[in-house]
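Holo prediction. Input below; ligand is flavin mononucleotide.
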Amino acid sequence: MDTTASTNGESFEILRQLIVERRTNMMVDRERSVPGSTIRDLCDLAMWAPNHKRTWPWRFATFTGEGRMRLGEAAAMDLIAGGSDDESKIGKVRRKYARTPVVLVIGSAPDDHATFHDENRDAVAAGIQNLLLGATALGLASFWSTAPVIDGPNTLELCGFESGTRIIGMIYLGWPTGEGLPGERPEPEITIVDS
Ligand SMILES: Cc1cc2nc3c(=O)[nH]c(=O)nc-3n(C[C@H](O)[C@H](O)[C@H](O)COP(=O)(O)O)c2cc1C
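Structure of the complex:
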């Protein structure tokens, strides 16, 4: 019996299950906190993503308690500074981060070289997937949302991120009270060139 193949097959199946089970889910217990050590472990997972030129572009800021309202206020200020006068949208942004016990803002550091600047973003996106899978493995619900303004100065300053950083995800995390939408994906389209 080829035990190596069997072990690898088991690892693949465990990983596949985790990947397929991860669902975008906002139904969480707002009152049940997520330990800071858990958030730190998840950030550490993000940093194991591939990273061309080893630029270490991942930037993290966590928001809990009243900090979530400060995040909403900063994001609202950035929307207004960008010319928005949609009062309904601005009001929603002010309140939305209180929907989960913790919001993790993840940024991609800038680079003077245009290609590396873009590749930093790719590395951060890959890192976010690591983090989401880690959250799934721990039984946490997660939701990757787009920042209202991805490079808004008020939000960047509150996060402690340098100017030019792009916010790649505002990640809501919490203990689930319900399930996300059923997962579905189309079949992969693969071009095969064999000769
Ligand atoms: C870069 C990125 C940004 C996203 N931003 C949002 C968002 O702003 N609002 C939202 O409802 N979902 C957002 N999503 C989540 C997707 O809507 C979600 O992944 C998709 O519906 C598939 O659902 P699943 O994650 O459960 O498979 C984002 C996902 C990615 C990768």
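The chain has a mean pLDDT of 96. That is the main takeaway for now.
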